[in-house]
Structure formats: C-alpha cells, structure tokens
Amino acid sequence: MKIVILGSGNVAFHLAKAFKEKNIAVSQIFGRNEIALKEISEKFSIPYSTEEVPDADLYLISVSDDSVTNISKKISKENCLVAHTSGSLPKEILQGNYRKASFYPLQTFSKSKNLNYAEIPFFVEAENEDDLEILKNVALKISENVMISDYEKRKYIHLTAVFACNFVNHLFSRAKEISDAQDIPFNYFLPLIDETVQKIHEIDPKSAQTGPAVRNDGRVLELHEALITDAEHMKIYKTMNESIKKMYEL
Known about the structure:
Layout lengths: L2 E4 L3 H12 L6 E3 L3 H11 L3 E2 L8 E4 L6 H5 L8 E4 L14 E7 L16 E5 L2 H14 L3 E3 L2 H31 L8 H10 L5 H4 L3 H4 L2 H10 L3 H17 L3
Parallel strand pairs: 1-2, 1-4, 2-3, 4-5, 5-6, 7-8
Antiparallel strand pairs: 6-7
C-alpha cells in the first residue's frame, strides 16, 4: 500500500517518524514549506515535493484545520482513501472524488520531544467497514490504543483534550510569569507538576483536588488576591477558584 503524507508540521513529522520506526513505507511527503519537508525527508529517508502529489492508496492530511480543505483538493486520484488528522473537523470537509476518513492521534506534538507512539490513542472514522479496517491496521502498527469514533464523539474528545492539555499548559505559562517576576526558578515547581499529573493516573481528578479553594480557606484566597497585580492573572485566579468552589459546593 502506497502512503503519502501531506503536511510538514509537528503531526506530519511524528507520523513520518512513527512509520519509519515501524518499517511502514511512506512514498512521499508533500507540502509548501520546503525547509521543513527537507528536514523530514533527510531524517526519515522519505522523498518530498512541493509541486506534485503522486498517486497513492492512502493519503494522510496533517495540516492546520484552516488548510485541510484546500490541500485536499490537490489530490486528483479517484477512489483512493484520504484521511485528515484533525480532531475538530468532519471527514466531509475533504473535497475530492475519493473515500473520506479521519485518522486522529490524541496527543500534543512537538518535533523536539520524543514520544512513545504505542501509548498514543488513535481514533479512526471512515465511510465503510473496509476502509475502517485499513485505517485500524495502519494505526495498530503504531499504537496499542486504536478506537473507532464518529465525528460527534470526536468533537468531545477534542474538547476534552483542550481542557486537559492546552488550558493546563497555559496555566503553566502564567505560573512561570509569576515565578519569573519574583526571580524564583520555575524548575523548582516541576516536582509538584509531575506529582499532580502522576496522581491522576491513580486517583480520579475530582478526588485529587487540593488547595485553598477546595478547603474554602478565605484567608489564603484573600492573601493571594492581594499579591496579584496583573489583571489577567487575577481574572484566572478568581475564575478557577469559583469553578473549584462550585464543583465542591462550597
């Protein structure tokens, strides 16, 4: 089976790397950013092009959501299988006379960060059972966690991921702003962060909650608010504490 990856960003990079590690041949990687394509090509011995999309059996589109429709129009082969890797788009966003699908890896990707691909959940969707089997078989060569999920379910998977990953990472960034302003090395907080994340492997997040809001400790809450001078920090602090109080009916 000939596979072509369209894209040169973080997801495309890691798909190419995962396929290389599992000896899954990729015929070509296609995109607009020649510098990024060349990096992927040299690292994983995959031919690349910025001009022409070759014939293939399976195309995996790994670009930004805003670019999926336009890049999908570049696939001229009919009756092939085309899947995007977005968590927030329906397969019908793909524009072409081919079989449409979704191949969504639930993970945050950075080129500089090594990942254990076997642990990454893949959610697949297709128009028929045969195509589902193709996508499942490809995903199972990479990951031990492969599930069928339609678009309605995948939207909620993606929403949950934004809360669990993007929002949490933003809080890390805001926390670092506070520590940097007081010349406190942020790496001092890494053991706390690691323990917080590790704890929810064993305890339900709601049961694992600690802090002044869950204790309804007004003295500490007022002390913290008196220390905060940044308006965005204050907005976040109050919003998060109100959410915690409501969850625990304090």
